[in-house]
Structure formats: structure tokens, C-alpha cells
Design a protein that fits this description.
Order of helices and strands: HHHHHHHHHH
Mean pLDDT: 91
Low-confidence stretches: none
Number of helices: 10
Structural class: mainly alpha
Largest sheet: none
Number of strands: 0
Distance between the termini: 87 Å
Radius of gyration: 22 Å
Length: about 200
């Protein structure tokens, strides 16, 4: 009887909780495998449900991917909002503003869980799909609107903030801290490539 009761309890997990758990699992699995390289069954097994159950909550693999991507953008927006709320210009150093606070919070987010970064990059990579492209554009635009609200800054300053954010994304994806032409790792790569390149014959 106890075993039967336990099974019944497990089966009665609300669909909303299962949905949230599946989105969370999908965020991490799609971050690593992308839309086309991630089997839905792998996400289902991570949560402990059967694949058909996933499709009872999400109409398609694409729908699950979009739910995960949009959750990722929402988490970035929440990170920015929390940083802006905690920022106090009265106690901050003269050269630090709300953008610095949000940027630092974003860096810490990338460092704490790389999957958030990789999922974002996977969302851009999947934009050949028109439906995904439209939803990713909408999610990005909502993030821009939130930064406008939090900062009250002009368009030029907001553009600068997002350009730097994309710079951070690329740097973090490659596991480096700097992308400048003269930075140490770029120079080292250039020197190695020069050493490996055959010397062109005289007069060539």
C-alpha cells in the first residue's frame, strides 16, 4: 500500500511544475547541443518523465526550445533589474554608474553558469528558422526596453552597453577575458601561426 501511495503521489505532480522543470532542463541541454543536436528524450529523462509527456505540454521540440530561450532572456532581465535596484549612486564611486552595475552582474551570471551564455548563442544560431528568429528578436527587444527603463539613458549609451555585452559573450564563449588586437592570447596565436606558415620563396 505504501508503494502504491508513493507512486500515486509522484504521478500527481502538477503539470505547471513539470513544465517549469522541463524548461529548466531544456535550458541546460539545448545550451550544450543546440536545437537540432539535442534529443527531446534526453530532456525528458533529466526530469524523469516520458518523451510523450513532454509533447503533451509543448507542441513541438521547437516550442520547448523557444520556452527555454525566452526563460534565458528573462533571467538576464531579472539580473539587470536586481543590479539596478541595488545600485546606489550616492555611495558608488564617481566613475561607476548603473550600466557598470548591470554589466558586472551579467559577467557574474556568465561565470556562475556557462549554460546561460551558450543557450543565448544557440538561440542566435537557430535564427534560420523564421519562427525562432521572430521570437528571439522579440525577446531581445524586450531586454532593450527593460534596460531603457532601468537606466533612463539615451539610445547611444544603451547601444554601447549592448555592444559591450556582445563582446563579453564572444569572449566568454572562447574562454578569454579580452578580444583586443594587442591582447596577449591574440598575439600568441599570431606568433604561432607565423611560425607554422611556410616562408614564401624569394620573388614570389
Amino acid at each position: 500500500m505504501a508503494t502504491t501511495s508513493a507512486k500515486t503521489t509522484r504521478q500527481r505532480v502538477p503539470a505547471s511544475e513539470r513544465r517549469d522543470a522541463l524548461i529548466d532542463a531544456a535550458m541546460h541541454e539545448f545550451a550544450r547541443g543546440g536545437l537540432h543536436g539535442t534529443p527531446v528524450d534526453k530532456i525528458a529523462r533529466r526530469v524523469g518523465v516520458a518523451q510523450p509527456y513532454v509533447f503533451s505540454l509543448f507542441g513541438s521540440k521547437r516550442d520547448l526550445f523557444l520556452a527555454a530561450v525566452e526563460r534565458g532572456f528573462e533571467l538576464v532581465a531579472e539580473t539587470f533589474a536586481k543590479a539596478a535596484e541595488e545600485f546606489d549612486p550616492a555611495t558608488a564611486p564617481p566613475d561607476v554608474d548603473v550600466f557598470n552595475a548591470m554589466g558586472q552582474a551579467y559577467v557574474e551570471m556568465l561565470e556562475s553558469d556557462r549554460d546561460y551564455l551558450m543557450l543565448q548563442l544557440q538561440s542566435y544560431a537557430a535564427c534560420d528558422d523564421e519562427v525562432i528568429r521572430d521570437r528571439v528578436r522579440a525577446a531581445y527587444a524586450r531586454l532593450v526596453t527593460e534596460v531603457e527603463r532601468l537606466s533612463g539613458a539615451d539610445a547611444e549609451r544603451i547601444d554601447e552597453f549592448f555592444r559591450y555585452g556582445m563582446w563579453l559573450n564572444v569572449a566568454a564563449a572562447m574562454g578569454v577575458e579580452d578580444l583586443s588586437v594587442g591582447c596577449e592570447w591574440v598575439q600568441a596565436e599570431q606568433e604561432q601561426q607565423a611560425e607554422q606558415s611556410p616562408t614564401a620563396p624569394a620573388g614570389a
